[in-house]
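Posting this for the archive.
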Amino acid sequence: MIEDEARPGRPFSVRNEGLIVKVRERIQEERCATVRMMADEFGVNRETIRQILVEDLGKRKVALYLNLIERTNKMQPCSRIYYSNVS
C-alpha cells in the first residue's frame, strides 16, 4: 500500500484574490460567458468558478425569456446564462 507523507501547512487552493479579480473582469466584459468557458480559460475546475461567482461575487443565475428579449430589443441575445447580483 502506498501512502503520502504528511505535509505541513494548508492545502493548495486556486481560489485566490487574483482569480476572483479575473472572473469579475471577465463577466463585466462579457455577461454571457459561461462557467465552462471561464473554467477552460483560467484552467480551473467549474466548481471553483461557480463558488467564486456565488460566494465571493454575490452573483446568481438569472433565467431569461430569450424570445421576449428578441422581440422587444430586436437584437440577437446570447443563449447562455447571465449572472446578476443577489437581491
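The CA atoms of residues 21 and 33 lie 15 Å apart. The two ends are 52 Å apart (CA to CA).
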